[in-house]
Each structure stands twice: as C-alpha cells, then as structure tokens.
Write the structure tokens for this entry.
Amino acid sequence: MDYFSQSIKQAIRTVPDWPKPGVTFRDITTVLQNKTAFRKLIDAFVHRYHDQHIDAIAAVDARGFIIGSALAYELNASLVLIRKKGKLPFDTLVEDYELEYGTASVELHKDALKPGDKVVLVDDLIATGGTMLAASRLIRRIGAEIVEVAAMIDLPDLGGSDKLRAEGLTVYTVCS
Ligand code: PRP
Ligand code: ADE
C-alpha cells in the first residue's frame, strides 16, 4: 500500500464488537472529519478516473453517497442514487441480496441511466460484496457499462471483492 493509501487508512477508526460481538466496524466518520484525509480520499478516486469519459457515478445508500457526490462533482459526471428499498418515488428496478440474517433490497430509478452509459459504481466499503453485486445488477439490467466498482475499503477476508471479480467486474479499492 502506498503512502497516500496508508494515510487514509490511518484516519479510519476501527470499533471492535460493533454493531455486535465479533464484528470490527470500520468507521469512516473520522476520515470525513479529517479534511486532509477526506481530500486525499476524493483525490485518489478523481486521479483514477479523470482521464476517462465517465457519464455517471452510481453511489450506494448511504455512505456511498458521501464519496459519490464529491466524485461526480469533480468528474463533471451525473450522480445516480442506488437506494435501500422504499425510498425512491418513481418507477424502479429492484434487486434483493443476502445479509448475514435475512435479505435486503436496493432500487434504482429506471430512467437514471441509459444503455451504454459509462458508470463507476461507488460505495465506502466492500465486505461480503452483496450490496455492490446487487447494485451492479441494477446497472447492468439497464444496459449501462460498469467501468469499475470502487470503494474506499476492501475487507478481502470476507471475499466480496473476489466475488465481484468473478462476475466480470473490475474492482478498485483505496485501502484494505
Ligand atoms: C454497509 C456499507 C456497504 C455494505 C457493505 O452499508 O456501507 O454498503 O454495508 O457490506 P457487504 O459488502 O457485505 O454488502 P449498510 O448496509 O450498513 O448501510 P449504511 O451505508 O446505510 O450504513
Ligand atoms: N459493512 C459491512 N461490514 C462492515 C464493517 N466491518 N465496517 C463497516 N461497515 C460495514
């Protein structure tokens, strides 16, 4: 990991046994509160995509919105919201995914993207990959092209990024 990624990683707070015993929670509020770290984080994503044509940043509810909106602004791209079920008011596509206990669903407005649009899918963290996989399916159902799946943090031991690669997606994460 380079110096740049290391300094962002240092700004992440790890909280043991939250929200339940055995989970080490990666708290990104400490990155957002640190103006140097937050700027470095957004710059890392901007640097990766600034020389490509990107039509839209698709950001995942809720922490993905924070990174996605800053990135869309900097890249002069559209911002498309992938929301938890029941939050979007117009016609939607829905994808269900597995949680540790039970299932959840994400939604995308049908008119949020067009076939052929070049999209970067952004969230804060990849754990099991279930959220990003469901989000990527929404985008692919419209026929848009996922340039890359991007996140601040990968938890590789949970296998999510490998699962995404197995679906033919390219994955970029700033730190793990
Ligand atoms: C967290 C995180 C990712 C997802 C990663 O979101 O922000 O979206 O979990 O986990 P996965 O790779 O196992 O799917 P959460 O659902 O907790 O929602 P929040 O952003 O609203 O806190
Ligand atoms: N989402 C899923 N697993 C997480 C973790 N360990 N820390 C923060 N967000 C998460």
About this structure: The CA atoms of residues 41 and 132 lie 19 Å apart.
